[in-house]
Amino acid sequence: MKSFFKNVLANIVAFAILSVVFFFFFVVVVFFSAMSGEKSVVVKKNSVLTINLKTDIIDSPTEEQASIFNVNEKNKSILLYDVLEAIKNAKTDDNIKGISIETDHLNAGITQLDDIRAALEDFKKSGKFVYAYGNGVSQSTYYLGSVADQYFLNPSGMIDLKGLATEVTFFKEFADKYGIGIEVIRHGKFKSAVEPFLRNDISDENREQLSALLNDIWKNTSDKIAASRKIDAGQFKTVVDSLYGMIPEQSLKYKLVDKLVQKSEYDDFIKSKIGASKEDKLNKVSITNYINSIEKDNSGDGVAVLYASGSINNGDKYGDIYSEKYVKYIQDLKNDDKVKAVVFRINSPGGSANASDEILYELQQLKKVKPLVVSFGDYAASGGYYIAMSADKIYSEPNTLTGSIGVFGVMPYFKEIANKNGVRSDIVATNANSAYYSSLNGLTPYGVAQVTRSVEGTYKRFVHFVTQNRKQTFEQIDNVGGGRVWSGARAKQIGLVDDLGTLNDAVKFAAQKAKLKSYSVTSYPKKKTAFEQIFDDMNEDDISARLIKNKIGKANYEILEQITNEKLRSEVKMEMPYQIKIN
């Protein structure tokens, strides 16, 4: 027996030592991984700024989370604002002779591409060149690269230029087949977030809004490509409809590209433009390294940019938009004497109505103290639009998905499938409506009536705040509300936003409103370090969530959460039903 306890104790000690060693080793790895990105960069003379993004372009620091699940990934994320500032700086940097766009795929939103493209257009005013090279080029990357003075394509390459489409998936028949009931309560005939659970085909209202939205975005995008490539609009439509970009020779014939060359030939072409010989090494600096080379002055009074990216939720987690975290961020900015104005950058399809209301209230308090300007990114819909309703001025991008002023609630239940498999329940309760909803039996009739009242009350509150901010009547807002999503350009026409402009435009206006002649710009919330994230990742639920999210993808994980998370199921939601990407 004594030897038994000895062996057990020895195993426990060995396990503890190994755990400590592993943890220490892991911390060292994380530390040096974090430090490796902090190297100073020296830009040589006669350099070319290269956009060869093997990264995600993100709106908010919270979109990139240092984690034990991604610490070894080579790809990093860079803020859109930093990209724009780098291109602006390169315009007057004597060491930078031009810009080369060398990427086939970009993980960036449509409004982010718009902003980078506009920055490149402005860069060209310096007289410096912008060239682009591609192999198998995605539509989004071609949209960005078409701004170049010349576009070069590999002789065996292709351009996936095809226009925009969306595919709506429906689950009603599936739910009916397997005995899954879904109780849906909504306000707004255009509130199509719940449509896949109610129908087996697309409604006329949803088809109408999707068609208008896609055509608005594609017209804005295709007009810019055609203008840059000097292609007649009618001919460009034929080129896209015929998928001519898939064949390199047709890409050349129909002026999508200027030359078919190998990559080394493209490099030699750039060398000739900067006066270097073929034998010389081409000095390239990636935009990520160039960002790190720019000295930033964050001293003195300034404008704070508070980023809000992702779905809106209750809670205090880091990542997405969690109300408790954002209440604290907003209160800190309100009380910071060095912050003279705040730009609230919203890139959100919405989420919890309650969390959105909490954030809006704190923003209203901040506005009483200092200027508050809102800038929309890819999405400012439902709750994402709601939290903008305290702004002194709202800037939207032309392609921002805007509005979706509507409210809904979804409550799945499993009575039929349970009964088919011999599962039933009895309820014992203290009050008349203690069990107004259960996952097995769904909503009671009285429960339906009360949830409907809740949804309608939330919608009226939503519209009330919009009428106050937009200075329109309830009827006017209700007429363009009903859950309908608009492009930013249309939103400007109907008065849902004040102006079309970029994040930089919003920052400039905020500084002007605060009467700042010179100012620094600081981003909030601060990005978590890898070391800080380790301890957050130790939570068992978070570990499971991250593993599942990494396996099935963020979008699919959010759908799973809606079904399995009891708290999310019970909430009244202000949320947009879909995303649009130019792939």
TrEMBL record:
Membrane-spanning parts: 12-35
InterPro entries linked to this entry: ClpP/crotonase-like_dom_sf (IPR029045), Pept_S49_pIV (IPR004634), Pept_S49_SppA (IPR004635), Peptidase_S49 (IPR002142), S49_SppA_67K_type_N (IPR047217), S49_SppA_C (IPR047272)
Domain Peptidase S49: from-to ranges: 123-263, 365-517
Protein localization: Membrane
Keyword field contains Transmembrane helix: yes
Gene3D superfamilies hit by this protein: 2-enoyl-CoA Hydratase, Chain A, domain 1, 6.20.330.10
CDD domains from the UniProt entry: S49_SppA_67K_type (cd07018), S49_Sppa_N_C (cd07023)
Listed Pfam families: Peptidase_S49 (PF01343)
Keyword annotations: Hydrolase, Membrane, Protease, Serine protease, Transmembrane, Transmembrane helix
SUPFAM superfamilies, sorted: ClpP/crotonase
Location, primary (coarse class): membrane
This protein's record includes keyword Cytoplasm: no
Family under the similarity heading: Belongs to the peptidase S49 family.
PANTHER family reported for this sequence: PEPTIDASE S49 DOMAIN-CONTAINING PROTEIN, PROTEASE 4
The name this protein goes by in its record: Signal peptide peptidase SppA
Native source species: Chryseobacterium camelliae
